[in-house]
Amino acid sequence: MSDLIGRPAFPNLTELELPALESGINVADGHARYEPSVSQHKIIDRLPELFCQAAETPVSVLDREAQRAYLTAVGQHSALTGTEVLSCYSSSVAMEIFSLALMTCGVRKVALIHPTFDNIPDILTRAGMHLLPVAEDHLLDGTAGLPAGIEVLFVTTPNNPTGWILSRDALAHWARICASRGIILALDTSFRGFDERSCYDHFSVLAESGCRYVVIEDTGKLWPALDLKVGFLVFPPDEPLPLRRVYTEILLGVSPLVLLLVRCFAEDAGEGGFAELHQFIRSNRDLLRGRLAGAEIHSPDQASRISVERIAVPPGMSGTQVSSALRRRGVHVLPCGQFHWAEPEAGAQFVRVALSRPPGLLRAAADAILGCLRP
Ligand code: EGV
């Protein structure tokens, strides 16, 4: 929504995340800001050596190795052989390339999971797409209706902010429907590294169905690498969308050093790093829930394992009120209205707290939340 000269009527979620980078307690953005583990520290300590290694190695080798290490660590074995993979600066850049490719081909009608992080509907809308919201529950039980004319089904799994996951059966169901109706099935799996339940081999299900698909993988949320990350745009070699052409209009490739770092972090993740990360996030989630227990607050996403947690504020208050009150105390969380991109009121009861933080920071954030609920 914007006024006549295109000024938005309200800030997007990223604009709400920005002030948290300046000062105060930042549990707003979903980026990884925790203390590196012992083995992650060893990688960071090798940076000068990795820089030289990256400079001496052909970038095609570094690219392939980063892709192999990451896709293997998250269980996507069928992507290693049967797909084309384009490495991007971030998942949002991959998303932008995908949207421009759709626009080029005259695609307009996209069914999109609701709620989800607002830059996904925003990027699609800016590329001229018309969006139809699809509820998580209806995706999971297969009852979501895709009206005639839908050309893309876009699902974020695990979903941000709810942690909801598209099961293997539900993926197979939608892949079959997409195959029979010529719909492109698009997935954003940026949070899958946090949840083993979303590390089944999606690409074998997709290939078996014969549907058109585009998957956006991402390392950006996983490791405390100061936003040195890649997003991977993954699709079948015979996909007619001009993804490679749009990609080359935007990028030659990503930094060899970043590719090498991603490989190192991904290999570490596969060798126990993910188990450690899952334990860390679980412990932070327990800490937050424990601290808030007893207040008139609840966690609607009991099954979530991703690195953000939604909490419902008490009746009579709104997420926007609570996040504004917290901001005045220097504590930054996200109000959830904008995640519900088609119906902001549906998110009014929630705020989102980032869990990929040092436990001490989360404790302080939880105490501030309690403080602003007391009369
Ligand atoms: C989250 C920030 C972008 C995004 C954060 C995010 N916004 N890329 N425009 O990376 O959940 O906080 O996804």
What is the averaged pLDDT score? 96
| String of helices and strands | HEHHHHEHEHEHEHEHEEHHEHEEEH
Going across the major beta sheet, what is the strand order?
Answer: 2-8-7-6-5-3-4
Beta-strand percentage range: 5-15%
- What is the approximate shape? globular
**Residue share in helix:** 40-55%
CA gyration radius, whole angstroms: 20 Å
Number of strands: 12
Ligand names: (4S)-5-carbamimidamido-4-hydroxy-2-oxopentanoic acid
Name of the CATH homologous superfamily of the largest domain: Type I PLP-dependent aspartate aminotransferase-like (Major domain)
Topology-level CATH name of the largest domain: Aspartate Aminotransferase, domain 2
CATH architecture of the largest domain, by name, is: 3-Layer(aba) Sandwich
- Count up the domains: 2
